[in-house]
Write a structure and sequence with these properties.
This protein is 19% helix and 42% strand. By secondary structure, it is α+β, with helices and mostly antiparallel strands. Strands 9-8-7-6-10 form a five-stranded antiparallel β-sheet. It has a three-stranded mixed β-sheet with strand order 3-4-5, covered by helices on one side. Strands 1-2 form a two-stranded antiparallel sheet. It starts with a strand and ends in a 5-residue tail after the last strand.
Length: 167
Amino acid sequence: MCIRDRYENESIMIDAVRIREIAEAQMDGTDLFVVDVRVAPGNGIEVVVDSDTQVGIDRCVALSRAIEASLDREQEDFELTVTSAGIGQPLRMLRQYRKLIGREVEVVLKEGGKLVATLTDATGEAITVEYQEKAAVEGKKRKELVTRRRELPLAEVKSTCEHLSFK
């Protein structure tokens, strides 16, 4: 099955669905998973993968070779890049959120606010975070640090990425 689209200049475009299928077949039985596949005009292919543990360069190289072996350069010239989902890149899949449970994330809300908090839960509809903030406590003169727990519907979240602190 090879799905192709023709562009005005009549060049053949490699299909992202086909590349995803090839990559997923190669990763079957591992903890690797496809985050994104992009194919640009001119057949520039970018495959972004992640893992429940870690993605080493050797795993990216092996996947790149497997994908390349499944494509015919005689028929379709292409440039292939296989990368791991980088720190600081927005999370795209529930599996990525679940991987970061217990770690600090930076959540940018559609309303414009930003929150650095510990991710405590993730579902297909919402994420739950905990963070500390100073708040007035009844019977106290000074504000004290209190732990807040907040459930954020994914519909209200613009982006979420792993937070790195260099303190």
